[in-house]
Amino acid sequence: MKTMIEFTHFSFTYRSQSEPTLRQIDLSIQEGERVLIVGPSGSGKSTLAQCINGLIPFSYPGTWEGNVRVNGTDARELSLFDRSKHIGTVLQDPDAQFVGLSVGEDIAFALENKRVARPKMSHIVERVAKLTDVDHLIDSRLNELSGGQRQRVALAGVLVEEADVLLFDEPLANLDPVAGSEAMALLDRLQRETGRTLIVVEHRIEDVLSIPFDRIIVMVDGAIIADDHPDAILSNDSLMNAFLREPLYVSAARWADIAVQPKDRPSDLETFVTRFEREPILSKLEEETVTIHQPTSPLLELEHVQFHYRQDQPVLERIDATFEKGTLTTLVGQNGAGKSTLAKLLSGYKRVSSGTIRLNGEEITNQSIADRAKKVGFVLQNPNHMISKQTVHEEVRYGMQALGLSDEEESERLEQTLRRCGLYPFRNWPIQALSFGQKKRVTIASILVRQPDVLILDEPTAGQDYRHYSEIMDFLEALKQDGMTLLIITHDMHLVLEYSDQVCLLHGGRIRYAGDPLSLLLQENLLHHAHLKQTSLFTVARHLDMDVKPLLSAVIRAERKDRKQWQ
């Protein structure tokens, strides 16, 4: 079998770093293989991907030791342009690689550079657009597309080059659960039809394993600690040693004292679910105790809130909602449902068209942004839209500038917040040297340091590995216990189930559901509208013909208990 990518005793150190980011990498990837590369933030998995596609050393210089060969050729002899003929890359943020205004223009860009004749170009664009299911969007503008559609267009732009290897850097990071499932199904179909080598860098393991892979490569601290078939990786401690989250059904098996062995094919849910037996599970559940959320007092109230840009185009209609003091509410719904607009109304970035907003019984509907910001903090989804300073500690300290604190108080808050957000080791780092996930933690810290009464976060865990996801969410839960009210916009069903006291589902500009998260997951029609999906434990519960609620609660509690060893 032909070797497409080969690393031999390879190490790489960024120019700005004193220690290598990649250490003694020995790795071979064959033609037609499906390889999943996983690891926590800072493990080196993205750096490894950049060494494959040529961004290192052409865009990110540093010291290169050892050898890398691409399709049999020394990588140092290939220009970035030549490398792109072999390696097609779809970045975590598809917008970063768009060059056209419309779908058709962007797909055709590489062909135009090669001066391909127009009739042939049109044929290729139509063929690739159909292959990636965007043929009906050829004339659409890129800024009008959903996250999943943009990713498909980025893939189409790569496919016209007919590269031998398709490399995806965290393809699920900015997609809702349904779009993520569709994206993985598309990759599965493309690989089957073309036979190309598929490399996926991701840490949402359960979602990625909705399609089969030949190998999982696990990275920690710049080194490969495991490289084996997915069934072997899921059967040992490799994921736990890398601070990564196992598929929920595997965690359920361990909670139920079911041996997880390669021969049982744990990478395939439909096969592995037969290992669960009803009576032992029911017996195990009898040992569990359930804590019921006790209502407190309303802190934030919305009454008949409406918002529209034009009178005949309402974005939000008659929103009535109550958020209790010291609770965490998740806002869910597909793109365009009105979640971010609602957050902007609450934080004062936009004014309601009609209706009333009250905080602690006081009407704040028409407060200025400055006054509102003293009580309501809003962390945006894209960290680059918030960051204005050069270093981590400068950015977080800047959030306290208008509070009138003493230097001693500022320093104490700064250190406490940096430590709790996992940023203290990076306090003197330049912002530009951080990963996307690390930048998100910086923006969260810059708002948390102000200690608001209400904190609104737009997708705070997107791009975070399991360890940092847990640290941030456990920190937010501690804030909740201290009386802070939290509203989180998310597509992450693990977050919804594990942490939220209430979930509000928005669809068509209205709240269609407000209540218990587990009850929402039992309503498949609502889930469909919100572009959400049930977790793998629903498959286990259906197999056992039992209520999923106690099972889900028990497994999540067991996971949380196991995580304590990391902290």
TrEMBL record:
Membrane topology listed for this record: Peripheral membrane protein
**Pfam family of this protein, just one?**
ABC_tran
| Localization, UniProt | Cell membrane
Query: Among its keywords, does the record have Nucleus?
Result: no
Say if the entry is tagged with keyword Repeat. yes
Give the main location. Answer: membrane
Which Gene Ontology terms cover its molecular function? ATP binding; ATP hydrolysis activity; ATPase-coupled transmembrane transporter activity; cobalt ion transmembrane transporter activity
> What GO terms fall under cellular component here?
ATP-binding cassette (ABC) transporter complex
Give the source's domain of life in one word: Bacteria
* Coiled-coil segments: none
Sorted alphabetically, which InterPro entries does this protein's record hold?
AAA+_ATPase, ABC_Co_transporter, ABC_transporter-like_ATP-bd, ABC_transporter-like_CS, ABC_transpr_CbiO/EcfA_su, ECF_ABC_transporter_ATP-bd, P-loop_NTPase
Which stretch is the leader sequence? none
Record key words, sorted: ATP-binding, Cell membrane, Membrane, Nucleotide-binding, Repeat, Translocase, Transport
Q: Which PROSITE patterns match?
A: ABC_TRANSPORTER_1 (PS00211), ABC_TRANSPORTER_2 (PS50893)
The record's listing under SMART domains reads: AAA
Q: Which SUPFAM superfamilies match?
A: P-loop containing nucleoside triphosphate hydrolases
Where does the ABC transporter domain lie? 5-246, 300-533
Its family?
A: Belongs to the ABC transporter superfamily.
Function summary? Probably part of an ABC transporter complex. Responsible for energy coupling to the transport system.
Official protein name in the record: ABC transporter related
Protein source organism: Exiguobacterium sp. (strain ATCC BAA-1283 / AT1b)
